[in-house]
Design a protein that fits this description.
Blueprint lengths: L9 E5 L4 H6 L1 H10 L4 E7 L14 E5 L5 H11 L3 E4 L4 H9 L4 E5 L10 E3 L10 H12 L20 H13 L8 E5 L12 H15 L2 E4 L6 H10 L5 E2 L6 H10 L2 E5 L2 H9 L3 E4 L5 H4 L7 E3 L19 H4 L3 H14 L16
Parallel strand pairs: 1-2, 1-4, 2-3, 4-5, 5-6, 7-8, 7-10, 8-9, 10-11, 11-12
Helix pairs in contact: 2-5, 3-4, 6-9, 7-8, 7-13, 9-10
């Protein structure tokens, strides 16, 4: 991230407040940079996601805020910067209100949540487009607002951006070495939590069974990831496993988490923000979906595998199963997730613990 640009035309982009959404808007930021190469490009981000945008060369500056700050306080920060154009990725009323209060002369966003009067350019969202992946939701906003510009030399980016630095890779290796993991060890990352709610979480005992089977078949080391609120889930899985995994839940910041995920051969996860980090750093994902819709939020990019069962009430998008039985997760078996992991190993040319190719291994 380049700070303190002197470019005369100043753009501010309101990015998303949640980890996964913040990662998914990075292709739109890259595209925006390509279409305004001479502009100063800044982002307005909640402090919980600011690390997503570190070392992103498309961004010149970042303004952050916290939950304790009111709309006027944030607007005053923006007003001092004298932005010419404000682009609003979220569809909330409050995000448009802040740009209005900041007196940004040109304010662009989707005409949703009754906020049309706060926008100077209103982008209509075609109902059919709501079925698209979230990456395309943000890209479409940039595409629509720049229609008519000379784009002969411009290429729309669809690549997630998360640049892991050499210092971060070194730090990750140090953390792994402290728990007895060497550079030669094969690693499988597991993320059993989900901030949104229990309807997105596969069962801890099944994660434990997957972990034990991975160790048995492939000789890999298991690392459990998660935030501080997910330590209880991570601890329960670790206690159920026959061979103790390495438990990093609540022990890393986002940058350390991403660097360690980039070190993993496969990342096994619920639909979480960490899933999108894995996709961004190039780690093959074996994702487990229940209440949410993979059409909109599957790991972005080629080669990732989603395990999901279609039932009459899915995707319900609920935090807690209204029927309290979590059938969409209950019917996903351990063997199905193991098969997805094996397929990922086959694609990267892996071998089992006896040195034989994974291809054709019986489940």
């Amino acid at each position: 991230m380049r700070r303190g640009s002197n470019r005369s035309f100043r753009i501010i982009v309101r990015v998303l407040n949640w980890l996964g959404d913040a990662v998914l808007c990075t292709p739109a930021l890259t595209t925006l940079r390509r279409r305004f190469p001479q502009a100063s490009l800044s982002v307005l981000a909640h402090k919980r996601v600011e690390e997503v945008f570190y070392y992103n060369s498309t961004i010149d500056d970042m303004i952050t805020f916290s939950d304790v700050e009111g709309y006027w306080s944030i607007a005053r920060k923006l007003r001092r910067k004298k932005f010419d154009l404000g682009i609003i990725f979220p569809y909330s009323f409050s995000s448009a209100l802040i740009f209005f209060l900041a007196r940004i002369p040109d304010r662009v966003g989707y005409a949703t949540q009754g906020r049309s009067l706060l926008l100077t350019r209103r982008i209509e969202l075609n109902p059919s487009f709501r079925k698209e992946h979230q990456v395309m939701y943000y890209l479409n906003l940039v595409r629509q607002m720049t229609q008519g510009r000379d784009q002969k030399s411009e290429v729309e980016s669809k690549k997630l951006v998360w640049n892991v630095t050499e210092d971060e890779r070194t730090r990750a290796e140090e953390l792994l070495r402290e728990v007895g993991i060497s550079q030669q060890d094969r690693l499988i990352g597991m993320n059993p939590g989900a901030t949104y709610g229990p309807a997105k979480r596969w069962f801890p005992d099944r994660f434990a069974k997957v972990g034990d089977e991975i160790v048995k078949r492939y000789g890999a080391r298991i690392i459990i990831f998660g935030n501080s609120q997910e330590r209880r889930i991570a601890n329960s899985i670790a206690n159920m496993m026959q061979k103790m995994p390495v438990n990093f839940a609540g022990r890393t910041n986002l940058r350390e988490l991403a660097a360690m995920i980039s070190r993993c051969q496969v990342f096994v996860t619920n639909d979480t923000g960490s899933m999108h980090i894995a996709a961004a750093v190039g780690t093959p994902v074996a994702a487990i979906f229940g209440s949410t819709n993979p059409q909109k939020s599957a790991p972005w990019g080629d080669g990732h595998i989603v395990t999901r069962k279609e039932i009459e009430c899915s995707p319900c998008m609920k935090k807690i199963c209204p029927r309290r039985h979590y059938k969409c997760m209950e019917i996903i078996e351990v063997q199905e997730v193991l098969k997805a992991i094996e397929q990922q190993f086959q694609k990267i040319g892996g071998q089992n613990k006896d040195g034989k190719a994974y291809e054709g291994m019986a489940l």
